Q: What sequence folds into this?
């Protein structure tokens, strides 16, 4: 009978993804405790939001995290103090960062060097300066360092196995030539509705309003339309494919925010004035239509040329990118071994449950490596 | 400076997949030897075909395996002797089975119990009796046992990340409702040519002949057309999704071999008489066309109903399965978390390099777990 081992889990963030993850964690904890071959006790010892935290100095597992967090009046600790707390845990510790916070991301090297593993969908850790990327992977055991492990599948395409597929192509010696796809659920929805393959579609500003009303956009839709979210994902993919990318603003990114509306004070004012620019978008649509094509907002990495770009492109209506549905993502890997027909991964690339699933999947990978 | 560790590798099979794997192994061996964080020496100590073997009693690594194998006059050892040889190696050992041999598959539990890990594209190990499946996974460390690890990504869809994706859905607690797809490169090519979405296409017998001439079929095309290859893959997927499947002949599998030709003596005679049945296939095509659909040879698993089936189905021309190109595979996972739009994985599901890539990827996973 193998001896059960204990792994200490700290979670930062209890928003949409965080809540779904905590529910998946609770199910995983029950499953692992019952595993006949390698029973594992996952102890959730820390949960914090930007404002407060719940934890016990003696690493006693949290009970009902939802009510505990609500009842808590303790402000959260500074990140270095959390790192020390986890370093002193009587067993291996894993930090789950379910935020999109730059400060938390900046502290990853510190956690990793202390032997704490990290699992996260936080894009900012992997798409900021190349210095931060190097600091993270030179500290991590699955980089060149000797610290904790780090996995971030959900930072691109949520739970879709995009990063694991790319890593395997690279590690097994395939030559990645090009990566191309639709990497934003918001952009996918907007253009699949604006110019469906079957024809029709509404005015661009109307589609943005619909997407906003359905909760598919950030509170200020400009935060989607500026292309930065997609640029961050492309930065991550390009780096994993072996390119040096200084930052997500170091390559061409097309913003869909009209110049004139960049500086307007509020998202509401932006939405009110967006219809003034519908004619420009309709021109693009008509031009594509004349070539038998549709317009889509895509990102691509040309690995041999070292080129990364994000913006509008035209696709034949029979192209898999044109035929995408709803708010799905699609990612095509063109490689030497796959030849002309790429390896394609497609499906929901946003949403609490599927993003949390990528995080939970990564946690399982870390637990196997910590054996 | 970490101490380099040594892992002993034995390879059975030096055919199409075997040769590609040996070339990928040689590249991986160089990469791992240079790894700054965890240098690993992979020592290829055994290589055998059905007829002969090359190895040294003192575990000295093989030099030039190609010329060594050609020059060898040693018959291969019985499998239990190979298992003892690897068990006594002065370090961890991994058996790579690049055959499709049932005897080798039947011996996996023996190897695993001796602590030898296994990586293989050999479908027969996972799609024969449910007793063999249980014996394998009750011996393996990544099953319920304490023996070696076993991975078999390439047994379905070659290097496409199909099994790893399915395992992650299950392990993270998603509910898989249905798995559906085209799982045979041969069947994909045949039907994409027989009834292209854009219309046209040749007689069925002519497409079989083209596929045979291009090397896309087994030497006797009946070995593809009987549906057993697809049934074996569905057996594996259904078992990973949690269903009890007794064998690949325990559920409905539609054979495309006309009853009258099942017993003809040779593949050549079969090919000569196949045109007699073109009218029957044309009827199916016309019937589908009248509904605006195309015919495809697919497999599906309905998890809640516990139903597995393989055969011809009709799909709308806009369906991703209809739009498949060349000899690509496509696999759609319908799950609770993904909702109406499934997680789709698509690309080449056959061929030496991509099959070997799945094997190499699995070997890397085993090496990480053996740390």
A:
């Amino acid at each position: 009978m193998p001896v059960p081992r204990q792994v200490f889990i700290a979670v930062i963030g209890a928003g949409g993804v965080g809540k779904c993850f905590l529910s998946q964690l609770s199910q995983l904890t029950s499953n692992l405790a019952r595993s006949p071959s390698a029973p594992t006790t996952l102890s959730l010892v820390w949960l914090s939001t930007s404002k407060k935290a719940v934890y016990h100095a003696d690493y006693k597992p949290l009970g009902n995290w939802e009510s505990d967090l609500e009842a808590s009046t303790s402000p959260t600790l500074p990140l270095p103090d959390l790192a020390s707390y986890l370093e002193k845990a009587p067993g291996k510790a894993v930090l789950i960062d379910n935020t999109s916070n730059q400060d938390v991301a900046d502290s990853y090297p510190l956690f990793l060097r202390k032997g704490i593993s990290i699992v996260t969908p936080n894009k900012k850790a992997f798409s900021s300066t190349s210095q931060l990327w190097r600091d993270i992977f030179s500290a991590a055991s699955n980089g060149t360092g000797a610290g904790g492990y780090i996995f971030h599948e959900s930072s691109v395409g949520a739970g879709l196995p995009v990063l694991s597929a790319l890593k395997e192509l690279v590690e097994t010696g395939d030559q990645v030539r090009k990566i191309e796809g639709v990497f934003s659920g918001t952009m996918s929805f907007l253009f699949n509705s604006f110019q469906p393959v079957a024809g029709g579609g509404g005015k661009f500003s109307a589609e943005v309003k619909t997407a906003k009303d359905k909760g598919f956009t950030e509170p200020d839709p400009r935060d989607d339309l500026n292309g930065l979210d997609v640029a961050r994902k492309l930065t991550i993919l390009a780096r994993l494919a072996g390119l040096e990318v200084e930052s997500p603003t170091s390559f061409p990114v097309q913003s869909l925010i009209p110049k004139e509306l960049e500086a307007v004070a509020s998202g509401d004012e932006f939405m009110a004035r967006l219809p003034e620019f519908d004619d420009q978008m309709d021109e693009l649509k008509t031009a594509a239509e004349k070539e038998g094509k549709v317009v889509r907002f895509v990102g691509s990495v040309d690995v041999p040329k070292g080129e990364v770009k994000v913006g509008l492109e035209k696709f034949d209506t029979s192209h898999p990118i044109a035929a995408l549905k709803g708010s799905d993502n699609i990612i095509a890997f063109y490689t030497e071994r796959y030849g002309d027909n790429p390896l394609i991964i497609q499906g929901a690339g946003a949403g609490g449950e599927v993003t949390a699933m990528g995080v939970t999947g990564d946690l399982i990978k870390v637990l196997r490596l910590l054996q």
Observations:
- The radius of gyration of chain A is 22 Å.
- Chain A touches chain B through 50 residues (CB under 8 Å).
